Design the sequence.
């Protein structure tokens, strides 16, 4: 029986290609067929690059026929959040105003690197306007929907990135994460999502949001896929001034090392309150699987979240100031109002926030001198309904949009690597994510722990039953 290559993970599809069981063209055709069938209901894609994909797949297949070695991702299909430059498309960044930009003249660095390793791009994905969103509800393109139940949010701002992978329209995708925009959608859509260390992956060729907080990373249905894609994207790139000059540090080869010898703890204090029961049940399940008993506190995490909010609003307002003055009515009102508030933030507050940021980073490094992995909730709840404005967290009514990132923001604030693993608690209709957090530059440790959880059945990312 012929297996649809889009029912496979990226590594499985690449394996089939390497054995000659399948072709890049077959993967692209299957992806385009699934996109045509599912995207009208999920609204994950804003552009499908069918012609480009077929041309690229034909080149990959022709190279194999000539006996040329192909990259480890050959036979896999991906798409990117529409803040990535895709040659021939305007870089929307989820906005109305950017639709007037000329088409990009070249691909973003990470797209170039993935296609150099054999993967094929099939399109650009829906996102929250200018990445300032946790819901996946775009005011201009409509909400991207959760494949496990389209009545529910996909999460944001990389909502289309999560929906495309969870539905099997792509093998993996790329998103961005400023305050949680990879980990929140991964939690809601039941995926593995990696926010690497700040400066690890090049941001060249992407539309910014908050330069001192922006990260790029992958979402996938398996940890092995996540590691393969992460490894393919590493390496210095002088076009991103914030990127480290560290050499690539591959993680895939170390996945099988297991968790023996790792010092694993669960984050206490701030991370042990303020969420619905399902979030703590998921953390409990992961803690049992990893043998994490003792709680460890990241001191002043709540203050870190507040400082992250302030810096986000102020830096975002500075980036968009000319647009806010000239075309305020062309913004999503929720985004516009928060940016305007950021423009009015007193300078003294920002100075204090940045000083505190340095203190909090040093405090986190002291914690990671004692532990290798911290586990914490990724979101305070499972995916809310699309359009839902309020939710109850431990008996208190809270705004949905502002509070979905309460557990991810303190981690992004100081650029720690964090991997969301998807957990299905007993009887749950929807998944919820748990963060695996490591010290700076130790993505390999987070991936090892996640791989162990996947292998033990404590975390899994099935294709949604549509």
Sequence:
């Amino acid at each position: 029986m012929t297996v649809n290559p889009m029912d496979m993970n990226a590594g499985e599809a690449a394996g089939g290609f390497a054995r000659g069981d399948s072709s890049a063209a077959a993967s692209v055709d299957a992806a385009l067929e699934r996109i045509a069938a599912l995207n009208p209901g999920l609204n994950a894609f804003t552009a499908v690059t069918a012609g480009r994909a077929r041309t690229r797949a034909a080149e990959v297949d022709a190279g194999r026929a000539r006996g040329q070695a192909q990259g480890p991702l050959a036979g896999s299909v991906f798409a990117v959040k529409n803040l990535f430059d895709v040659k021939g498309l305007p870089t929307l960044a989820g906005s109305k105003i950017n639709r007037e930009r000329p088409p990009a003249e070249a691909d973003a660095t990470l797209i170039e690197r993935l296609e150099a390793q054999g993967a094929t791009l099939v399109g650009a994905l829906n996102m929250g306007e200018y990445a300032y969103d946790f819901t996946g509800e775009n005011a201009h393109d409509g909400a991207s929907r959760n494949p496990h139940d389209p009545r529910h949010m996909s999460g944001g701002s990389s909502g289309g990135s999560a929906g495309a992978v969870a539905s099997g329209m792509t093998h993996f995708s790329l998103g961005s994460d400023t305050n949680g925009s990879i980990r929140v959608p991964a939690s809601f859509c039941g995926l593995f999502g990696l926010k690497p260390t700040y400066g690890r992956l090049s941001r060249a060729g992407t539309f910014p949001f908050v330069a001192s907080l922006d990260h790029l990373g992958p979402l996938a249905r398996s940890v092995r896929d996540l590691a393969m894609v992460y490894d393919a994207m590493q390496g210095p790139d002088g076009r991103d001034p914030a990127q480290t000059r560290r050499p690539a540090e591959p993680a895939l080869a170390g996945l099988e090392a297991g968790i023996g010898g790792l010092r694993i703890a669960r984050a206490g204090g701030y991370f042990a309150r303020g969420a619905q029961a399902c979030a703590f049940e998921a953390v409990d399940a992961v803690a049992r699987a990893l043998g994490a008993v003792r709680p460890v506190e990241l001191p002043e995490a709540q203050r870190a979240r507040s400082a992250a909010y302030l810096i986000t609003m102020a830096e975002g307002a500075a980036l968009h100031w000319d647009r806010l003055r000239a075309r305020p009515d062309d913004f999503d009102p929720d985004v516009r109002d928060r940016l305007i508030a950021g423009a009015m933030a007193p300078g003294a507050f920002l100075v204090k926030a940045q000083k505190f940021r340095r203190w909090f980073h040093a405090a986190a490094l002291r914690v990671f001198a004692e532990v290798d992995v911290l586990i914490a909730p990724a979101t305070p709840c499972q995916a809310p309904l699309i359009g839902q404005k309020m939710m109850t967290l431990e008996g208190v009514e809270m705004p949905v949009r502002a509070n979905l990132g309460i557990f991810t923001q303190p981690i992004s604030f100081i650029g720690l690597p964090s991997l969301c693993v998807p957990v299905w608690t007993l009887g749950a209709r929807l998944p919820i994510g748990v963060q695996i957090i490591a010290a700076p530059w130790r993505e390999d440790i987070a991936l090892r722990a996640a791989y162990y959880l996947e292998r033990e059945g404590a975390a899994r990312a099935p294709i949604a039953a549509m």
